[in-house]
Amino acid sequence: MRALFLLSLLLFSFACQPGIDQTDAQENEVTFDVKDHYQKSTHYITMRDGVRLYTTVYSPKDNSQTYPIMMMRTCYSSRPYGENAYRKSLGPSTSMMEEGYIFVYQDVRGRYMSEGTFDNMRPIVHREDEQGTDEATDTFDTIDWLVKNIPNNNGNVGQWGISYPGHYTTAGALSGHPALKTSSPQACIADFYFDDFHHRGAYTLSYWGATPVFGYQKEDTTRTAWYRDYMVDYGTSDLYDFFLKLGPLKNSAKYYGEDNFFWQDLSQHPDYDEFWQKRDILPHLKDINHAVMVVGGWFDAEDLYGPLKTYSTIEENNPNIYNTLVMGPWSHGDWSRNNKEQIVGNISFGEGVNQFYQDSIEARFFRHFLKEGGDGKTKLPEAYVFDTGKKAWRTFDTWPPKNAKESQYFLEENGQLMTEKPSAAKGLDEYISDPSKPVPYSERIKVRFTPRPYMTDDQRFASRRPDVLVYETEVLEEDVTMVGDLLAKLKVSTSGTDSDWIVKLIDVYPDSTQNQASTPKHISLGGYQQMVRSEIMRGKYRESFSKPVPFVPNQITDVDLPLQDVFHTFKRGHRIMIQIQSSWFPLFDRNPQTFVDNIFMADEADFILAHQKVYRNKQHASAIHFKVL
Hints:
Layout: H1 2-16, H2 21-24, H3 34-37, E1 38-46, E2 52-60, E3 67-74, H4 94-99, E4 102-107, H5 135-149, E5 153-162, H6 164-172, E6 180-186, E7 198-199, E8 202-203, H7 211-215, H8 239-246, H9 261-268, H10 274-277, E9 291-297, H11 305-317, E10 323-328, E11 341-344, E12 347-351, H12 353-371, E13 383-387, E14 392-396, E15 405-412, E16 416-418, E17 428-433, H13 460-463, E18 469-472, E19 480-494, E20 500-508, E21 529-538, E22 557-570, E23 575-581, E24 610-615, E25 623-628
Parallel strand pairs: 3-4, 3-5, 5-6, 6-9, 9-10, 10-13
Antiparallel strand pairs: 1-2, 2-4, 7-8, 11-12, 13-14, 15-16, 15-25, 17-24, 18-23, 19-22, 19-24, 19-25, 20-21, 20-23
């Protein structure tokens, strides 16, 4: 079991660094020898407050021309360390590595070989405090040093990053340095209260094991992952059982003490208070004066909120810059891989998807703005997005598309989804939510720090449960393409004083659907219920994430649950399904179904059964609202 845990830790180190290690993991696909074509140098760059950041530079050996600088700043290590230790691949993609750029990697403050103190989602302060330092000022100071000291650079700088490095890219876009010409935040964190560790007030329990990665300061500069000594050995491959036996979150104290500052941050700030609000980067996304390309994956379990909100906020606040959105059929960071066939969970989205993105979208974007003068005439659209039902790329002048029309499905009796509002005076569906028997998020729960395949999982296992409500359309007579935002407007009641509400949007395949060559042997696509979109709402936050309010037991209450954007065609012959439930374990923590001030301090006695009702009548109609093309 110890070996299993260490393997999961290794996989987590890959998962944290999709732009680095996942690319390196494809080394069998890459014949380009970095050491033959690039010269490595390492530097300590001094920031304005005297803190020195460890920076690695890979410069093309061909010095007959000048090159733009491509930079990634990371909390996950700029390894390998040492002048003679080279990365197996450089930059966002093989094509850009072969084309030739000066690639720069930097450990951010407080991480690995850099000096200073690490701060999770360090607040942006430099615009209010001229003496303040943040990720934007560190980016400015780094760029300023690079363009003045690295030979053969052409004075143009681009930056990119995936996941947490994507957040550093967003923050760096606020630096205002005149040499910065492009930024590409990818799978970027925007707000830790809505990305990664929380979803709409619910704590992401499946990331519990990752807490030490962000919770311990290193004592000195180091080349190794110091936090590994604090990682929890689950002692089992059954995480459903592990977390049930753990009980209330307060029992985590046996694993995470006061020295784990990130766990303390999480447990002391259950609401969206000032601590989280000042770490939200979205309000700062103003006065950006260079080209931006935001990239995300439709099946990104960690950071789907971040890219969509980053793009829309930049678009709203900076209308005169080149700002484009790319959304593909990817889980977290998949687009940086060299795999020929793009697969998420059990579902294939075809061959050549990643190569097309890397060569025809990403490399083209950076080449134009960093090498070709950057007049904006790349002919890249405003939105380059992948239809996950038709499995094809589409382009749009706006996102969501202007010609999308409002539509909705109402919940009806006998598990029906109907386009017309219910006419019956009475009507509801009900179930018992038992926190001792929570609904699993997947039929196959494995040891994972950041579970991903569930985003396209078959939901037939959930449809069979008595604590999951199921509604579906008749067999579709024509394609239905959902595009843009989704909103579940529920009319509910609970016998308790708090409750979680989970809504899933599902594509039900015809029974006659044949397996693909890549379909796992234990899977049958005939009748497959593919999850397309899903989200959770902790009910006490239905009015405000900062000021939770209890439910009045058995009183009909509005719960509006936004799901993330979607672009999916439900094909003719398929059905559209909605599932509703009140637990999703151990993806998210269990709601005690009793209102508590702090879920991290809840006692076992707070966890009670609740009688849940979802209303579907003329006066209280529950529905899912969406846009169609």
